[in-house]
Each structure stands twice: as structure tokens, then as C-alpha cells.
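By convention, the C-alpha cell line describes the chain's fold. To illustrate:
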Amino acid sequence: MIKIALDGGRLFITSIMLLTSLVVLLSFSILSPSMSPLTSIADLDADGVPDSTDIFPADPSEWCDSDNDGVGDAIDAFPDDPNETLDSDGDGIGDNLDFMDEGNGGVKISLVKFEFEGYTSSCHRTKYSPDPWFEIRVDADCDGDFEIIFQSEVFYCEDYLECFFEAVVDLRDDAKSVRFSIVVYDVWDVDNNEVADFEILDYVPLDGLMADDQTIDLPCCSTWTYCGEGDTDNPDCTLEYMVSTVALV
């Protein structure tokens, strides 16, 4: 009987101690969660990382965000760059910086329409119908030099042309802009398949400027139409052209 009484007493005391410990732990958790011993061992998503250090405590596939951009390292293509998270075409350039997310990027410059407006009486030589020839100059890296030049065929005795020439330029996918110029000529002489003599046709209505020099931001899809009439430069023409960004194979 005494042994039973003693065992019963010990059991009672042990129960009281366990209950007291649970009350203390619960008090810590309610009054000061950060100091609670339970906090350091809690793992809501069972990913092996305690909630106290898990940036994504409810996501078992994520627990760290090195660049603090709100996207976990496991799916962040640039875990150390807070400005980038995706690389849709896998080219190593983030979508925010990449002007063409669907692959290698370039620009297409298309000559849409040409119309000859004529020579004036002040021209030192005249022609009823021109032999137009077109040159597209491209400064792909905007360093001030037109390092890429595309030349069309010579269109003999043509006053009007539509959708007649285009040039496609491969660019770095992180390029922010591209510079280009289009020059329109009236060819007077060809020697051994090379243009030997020409007149520049004016399509820009500003004195002293017969060709346009543009720098455009990427991506871009725009069309421009100019007519050279209205200034002192001649002979004149109208030129319409379009510039668009394209994905290259």
C-alpha cells in the first residue's frame, strides 16, 4: 500500500511539472513569439528549414531569397540580382533588360514607299524620271560610326515604289537603342556594276538636311513619312519607312 501511494505521489508531481512546463511554453508563444523555444523548431512546410529562418515558411520548395526581390532562389533565374527574375529565352539576359524575350533580337528597317517629287529649275542638271538607289546605314552599338551598310539595287526609271527594300540587323539582346540613317540617290552613271555618279534626293524638309539620322529606343515598331518639299534643298522625294524589332533564328 505504501509503494502504491509513493508511485501515485510521484506520478502526481510529474504531471504537475509537465503541465507547468506547457503553460510556460504557451505563455512565451503568446506573449513573445520570437523568444518562444517552439519558434526555433517549428517547420510549417516540413522542408527541413525552421520557420524562424525560412523566408517562405508555407512553401516547401522555397526558403531563401538572396536578393530580396520577393522571388525565391529556386525559381529566380538571377538570385543575386534584385532587378531580374526571368530569362524567358535562356540567353543569359534577364527579361527586364532583354528587348527581345522570344529569342535573339534584331531590328528590321523596311522602305515602305518612295515617290519622286521632281527636279526644280535651280538644279544644275535635271531628269524626268530618276533611277533611285537606296542606302541604309546602321550604327548598331551607337558609338558614332555606321559600321553596317545595306545597299539596294538601282531601280531604273522609277517615280514610285512600294515595299521595295529592307534590312535586318542582329543586335545584342541587352541593346537599349540603335542609330541609323537612310540615304536616297538618283543614279546618273554605273561603271562595271558600280555606281559612279549620283545625285542625293532630298526627303527631309529642313534646309541643309537631305537624309534623316535617327536613334530609336528598343523595342520599337514605328513608321515615319517625310517629304523634302518646302526647303531650299532639291531634288525632292517622299520617303516612308518602318522600323520594328524582330526575333531572329
Observations:
- The chain has two domains: 2-35, 104-248.
- The longest strand covers residues 104-118.
- Residues 1-6 have pLDDT under 50 and may be disordered.
